[in-house]
Amino acid sequence: MVGTHRQQRNGVTRRQFGGLLAAGALVAGSGWPLGVAAAPPVLRVRIGSDIGNLDPARIFQIENQTVATQIYNGLVKYDEASNALVPDLATSWEISGDGTVYSFALRSGVVWHKNYGPFTSDDVKFSFERVLDPQTGSSYAGQLASIKSVETPAPDRVVITLKEPNSGFLHKVSAFNQGWILSRKALGEIGEKAYALNPVGTGPFVFQVWTPGREVRLSANKDYFDGAPKVEELLFRVIKDETAAAIALENGEVDIFFGLQQPEVIQRLKGGGQVTVLDRDANHTINLILNTSIKPLGDVRVRQAISHAINRKALIDGFFKGTKTEASGFLTSSFQEFTNDVAAYPYDPQKAKALLKEAGVGPFTLDLVAPGANPYDKIVVPIASDLAAVGIDAKIKVLERGAYLQARNKGTVPTCVTGVVGAPDPDSPILSMFAKSSFPPGLNTSHYEGVEDLIAAARQAQGDAARKEVYGKIQAKVMGDAPIVPLYADRLYIAHTKGVSGFVQNSLFTMSAYPVVLAG
Amino acid sequence: MDRLTRQLTQLAITVFGIVTVTFFLVRMIPGDPAQYMLGDYATEEALATLRAQLGLDRPVIVQYGLYALRALTGDFGASVVTGRPALEEILSSLPDSALLAFAGLAIAVVIGIPLGIVTAERQGSWSDLLIMVVALFGISFPVFWLGLASVLLFSQELKWFPALGASSGGGFLDQIHHLVLPAGVLGVSVAAYITRLTRSAMLEVLNQDYIRVARAMGVPQRRVVWRLALKNALVPILAIVGVTFAWSLGSAILIEVVFSRPGIGSMILKAVSARDYQLVQAGVLVLAVAVVLVNSLLDLAYGLVDPRLSAR
C-alpha cells in the first residue's frame, strides 16, 4: 500500500516537471527578457510597495522619496549622519543682513542625466517657480510660499528674495520633495504627464526602467560630480511581506531591507545574527490628535486627562516589543531644536479621573479613528482599554485609507492618528499640525491655534540660539495645551547583508545608495 | 462563422456590462484619487486643480459618457497615479499572471486528476479516506499559510528555492526556479478541488450501466477506468479547470503578495486602494475578456472530448 503510494508520488513529480517545462515554453514564446546573467555588481534594495510618481512637485510616500533620493539633488542637503545642512548643488551661500536675500553659488560642470545638457541657475528658477505655479497643483507650494522672486544673474549664481525673513528657509530648498531640482529642458521635452515615471536628475543614479509591481532599475551615473557610485546598478524590488523580505535578505536575494517595521521581524533578524540591523530615531512622532472643536475635548483638563490615561510605556514595551521610543513631545531628538523641557504626562489613571472630575465631565463616548494600516489599526485597541479604565467609552473606528483621509480632511472626526514624516525641519510638523493655516483640509485636525504668534516669531528668529529658544517655547506651549498625545517616537530600522559596507542610515525615512560598497 | 459572431457578441455585451458596473462601483467607495496622489500636505487648491485635470469635477454620468466614447476608440484612459495608459500598465503584468495560473493549473491537473481517479476506483478504502482527508486539508488551509510555510521550509531551511517568486532579469532557468514555489502552492491548493471533483464525476460514471456491462464482458479494469469512464467524466473536470484558470489570473493576490510576484490581482488591489479608477476599470476589463475567452475555448474543448456536445 505504502509502496503504490510512493510510486504515485514519484510519477507526479516527473509530470509536474513536465508541466513546468511547458509553462517555461510559454514564457519563451512571450518574449520575456531571457538569458542575461547578472555580471556587474547590482545593489538590490527591498521596498515595501510600488512607486507611482517621481515628480518632485507631486512626490509623496517613502518609496517614491527613496527612489528620488538617488536621482535628484537639491541646493543643499541634510548630512546623512548629523542632519546638518551641507552643500549639494550650491557650493556656498550668503544671507543678507535682514534675512530676506539668499544668494547661492552653484557647482559648475554638473550635467543632467540622459544628455539633457548642463545644469544652470535657470533650472533652479524653473523648479521653484513650477512648484509655486497654481497650475502645477503642487502640495508643496506652501513650503516655498515665502519666495518673492528667483533671479539668475549668472548660470552659476541664483538669488532668491523672500517676502519676509524666514530663518528656516534653507530647509525648504534642501534635497527633499520640493527642494529637488529638475531640468527645464527635460520636463519640456518629456512632458508633465510622462515625467512622473521618466525623471531626469543630476544625482548619483540614472533612472532606467520601472516594471509595475515588480522593480525599479537605475544605473550608476559615471559623471556624478562627487565621483561615480561604487555599484553599477541599483535595483529596488517590491516585496510587500516583511517575513518574506527577511528570508530574502538572509538568503542573499536582496542586499538591503528598507522599511523594516514589524517588531517580530526586527527581533528575528537581530536574533539570527546573519545580517546587520541598524536603527535610529526618526524625525517624526506618531500622535493621537484630539479635536478641540468637539465637546468635551475643548476643555484642556479633559485632554490632559486623556494624556495621563494612556499607558504609552506598555504600548511600546508590549505591542512594539521595545522597537519604538517614548516621546516627550511632537519633535524627536533628531531635531536640532528639540527640547524635553515641556509638560510631561506620566501614566496615572487616578490623576486622569481627578482631572475629568475637576472638569465636571461625566462618562462620555469618544471615537478613536484610525487608518486601516498596520500598526495604527492595532494600537488603538490598548488605547481604548486604557481610556475605558478612566471612564471614557472609546469606540474604535478603523477606516480604509482612502476613507480615512477623506474623513480626516473634513475635520469632523473627534480623534485621528497623525505622524508628519519627513525632513528634520521643525516647521514641517509645527505648521502642519498646529498652524491655523492647516485647519482641515490640512492636518491640524485639532483645530488648534495656540501658537500663531510664536510661529511668526520663529520665522524672524535669526541665529541658532534664538531659533532654539522660540521653538522651545512652541513645544512647551503645545504640550501644555495638549491638543495631541504623542504616542511614541518612531524608530527607523534598516537591515543589510554582511556584504554591504559604507551604508549610512538617515532619519528621513529614505536611504541613499550612493556610499554603498558591495563585497564580492 | 455563426458561432464566432455569437461569441463575439457575447464578449462585447459581457465586457460592456462589467466595465459599466465597475465604473460606478469604484466611484461609490469613499475616498478621492486626488487626495491619495497628493498625500497629507495637499492644499484644497492643489486638490481642486488635480480633480479638474483628471475630469473628476464633472458629474459622474458625464464622466461615464466620455469614458465610453473614448473606450470605443480603444483608449481606456491613463492611470491616475502614474499617468501611463491604464491598459498598458495592466497588460504588463498579464504574462506574470498567466504564467502563474498556467503552471499552477498544470501542477493541479497532474496531481488532482490521477488522485481523483484512484480514490473513485477504491471508494471506501483506506487510501481513499486518507487522500480525501488530505484534500480537505488542502481546501481548508488558506493559501497564504501554505505559501509562508513553503517559503520557511523550502527557501529558508532547505534553501532549494528563492523566497522571491519572481526573477529579476535572470535567464530562463532562473525564471523557472523562481516560479516553482508559487506555482506549487497554487497547484496544491487547486489540486484539492480537482481531486474531489474528479472523484465525484468518476463515481457517477462508474456506477452507470455501460460500465457494469463492460466489466461483465471482461474489459480490463485499467481500460474501464481510463478509456471508458474518464472520458465521460472529463467534461465537468474541464469546466472546473477552465474556471479556475480564469479565476487565478485575478485572484492569486495572496500568492502574489507572499511571493512578491507582480500580477493582475495585486495590480487591481493597488488600484482600488489608490482609487485609481481607470486602472481598476482596465484590470477588470482584461479579466472579463480572459474569462469569456477561456469559456469559449472550453466550449471548443467540450466538443473535442464529447462529440455529442458540438452537435448542439
TrEMBL record, chain A:
<dbReference type="InterPro" id="IPR006311">
    <property type="entry name" value="TAT_signal"/>
</dbReference>
<dbReference type="InterPro" id="IPR000914">
    <property type="entry name" value="SBP_5_dom"/>
</dbReference>
<feature type="domain" description="Solute-binding protein family 5">
    <location>
        <begin position="85"/>
        <end position="437"/>
    </location>
</feature>
<dbReference type="InterPro" id="IPR030678">
    <property type="entry name" value="Peptide/Ni-bd"/>
</dbReference>
<dbReference type="GO" id="GO:1904680">
    <property type="term" value="F:peptide transmembrane transporter activity"/>
</dbReference>
<dbReference type="Pfam" id="PF00496">
    <property type="entry name" value="SBP_bac_5"/>
</dbReference>
<protein>
    <submittedName>
        <fullName>ABC transporter substrate-binding protein</fullName>
    </submittedName>
</protein>
<dbReference type="GO" id="GO:0015833">
    <property type="term" value="P:peptide transport"/>
</dbReference>
<dbReference type="GO" id="GO:0030288">
    <property type="term" value="C:outer membrane-bounded periplasmic space"/>
</dbReference>
<dbReference type="GO" id="GO:0043190">
    <property type="term" value="C:ATP-binding cassette (ABC) transporter complex"/>
</dbReference>
<dbReference type="InterPro" id="IPR039424">
    <property type="entry name" value="SBP_5"/>
</dbReference>
<comment type="similarity">
    <text>Belongs to the bacterial solute-binding protein 5 family.</text>
</comment>
Automatic annotation (TrEMBL), chain B:
<feature type="transmembrane region" description="Helical">
    <location>
        <begin position="233"/>
        <end position="259"/>
    </location>
</feature>
<feature type="domain" description="ABC transmembrane type-1">
    <location>
        <begin position="94"/>
        <end position="298"/>
    </location>
</feature>
<keyword id="KW-0812">Transmembrane</keyword>
<protein>
    <submittedName>
        <fullName>ABC transporter permease</fullName>
    </submittedName>
</protein>
<dbReference type="GO" id="GO:0005886">
    <property type="term" value="C:plasma membrane"/>
</dbReference>
<dbReference type="InterPro" id="IPR045621">
    <property type="entry name" value="BPD_transp_1_N"/>
</dbReference>
<dbReference type="GO" id="GO:0071916">
    <property type="term" value="F:dipeptide transmembrane transporter activity"/>
</dbReference>
<feature type="transmembrane region" description="Helical">
    <location>
        <begin position="175"/>
        <end position="194"/>
    </location>
</feature>
<comment type="similarity">
    <text>Belongs to the binding-protein-dependent transport system permease family.</text>
</comment>
<feature type="transmembrane region" description="Helical">
    <location>
        <begin position="279"/>
        <end position="305"/>
    </location>
</feature>
<feature type="transmembrane region" description="Helical">
    <location>
        <begin position="12"/>
        <end position="29"/>
    </location>
</feature>
<feature type="transmembrane region" description="Helical">
    <location>
        <begin position="98"/>
        <end position="117"/>
    </location>
</feature>
<dbReference type="InterPro" id="IPR000515">
    <property type="entry name" value="MetI-like"/>
</dbReference>
<dbReference type="Pfam" id="PF00528">
    <property type="entry name" value="BPD_transp_1"/>
</dbReference>
<keyword id="KW-0813">Transport</keyword>
<dbReference type="InterPro" id="IPR035906">
    <property type="entry name" value="MetI-like_sf"/>
</dbReference>
<dbReference type="Pfam" id="PF19300">
    <property type="entry name" value="BPD_transp_1_N"/>
</dbReference>
<keyword id="KW-0472">Membrane</keyword>
<keyword id="KW-1003">Cell membrane</keyword>
<keyword id="KW-1133">Transmembrane helix</keyword>
<feature type="transmembrane region" description="Helical">
    <location>
        <begin position="129"/>
        <end position="155"/>
    </location>
</feature>
